[in-house]
Design brief:
alpha/beta; Rossmann fold; seven-stranded parallel β-sheet; globular
């Protein structure tokens, strides 16, 4: 199957985890990818794994910097001639009770998870509109866009913002032939969740009716469907990919940690 022949995708957070797995799927189905990430060494490794410079490029990118995001999109056009698809996957989390939450950590999480998505959508959509060929953008939200979690006020607020930003972008950009959707993963085993102890992982699994943690491939499959022409009448929505975890209670972190 080659759903993405002649398609060029920009992927933020593309050096590892969900972003890299999405890149693998896109290249396997005929696409070309430009990865943006702060991990410059990881980008080199990822591009080599994906098949080298004929199908992939990596550009060191801080998604909280508009100049960096604009340079990422420009770089994709310069390298492969277009931006047809985009996945905004860069994210970061923190943990602190609201009354003790450092403002610096709040700003860092909101800047990466929400402002970073806004800046990416802004410049990706502009490139698509200027080229006149439409496109598809998928933002990575979270189960925590809908389900509150103790100690995660910044992350929950930022990811909830991604869901509403996705709706507004879909509303504005539909007339240009650009679809904008989001995916809300549950607990997925990636470098971002490597902090989780066995007890915490068990608590997540207990709250997931499907009975296991997620894998990057679970999310990549959903994202690639949303990017494809198979989803040509899907826009403005957020697809939960969480093993039905949204139907149950989130782990009680404060009880577990004695906060």
């Amino acid at each position: 199957m080659s759903r993405f022949n002649q398609k060029v995708a920009v992927i933020t957070g593309g050096a590892s985890g969900i972003g890299l797995e999405i890149a693998r799927r896109l290249v396997a189905e005929g696409g070309k990818v430009v990865l943006g990430d702060q991990n410059a060494e990881g980008l080199v490794v990822a591009v080599d794994e994906l098949g080298g410079k004929s199908v992939a490029a990596g550009i060191a990118t801080d998604v909280t910097s508009e100049a960096d995001v604009e340079a990422l999109v420009r770089g994709a056009i310069a390298r492969f001639g277009a931006v047809n698809l985009a996945v905004n996957s860069a994210g970061v989390g923190t943990f602190a009770p609201i009354e003790d939450h450092p403002i610096e950590e709040w700003d860092r999480v909101v800047d990466v998870c929400l402002k970073g998505v806004f800046l990416a959508v802004k410049h990706e959509s502009k490139a698509m509109k200027d080229a006149g060929h439409g496109g598809a953008i998928v933002n990575i939200a979270s189960l925590n866009s809908f389900q509150a979690a103790e100690g995660m006020s910044a992350y929950c607020a930022a990811k909830a913002g991604v869901v509403m930003l996705t709706k507004v972008a879909a509303m504005e950009l539909g007339r240009a032939g650009i679809r904008v959707t989001a995916v809300a993963p549950g607990f997925v085993e990636t470098p971002l969740t490597a902090f989780a102890t066995a007890e915490l992982t068990d608590a997540y699994v207990h709250g997931t009716p499907v009975g296991r943690t997620g894998q990057p491939g679970d999310i990549a499959g959903a994202v690639c469907w949303l990017l494809s022409d198979e989803a040509s009448w899907v826009s403005g929505d957020t697809l939960k990919v969480d093993g039905a975890a949204h139907t149950r209670e989130y782990p009680r972190f404060f009880d577990m940690l004695g906060v």
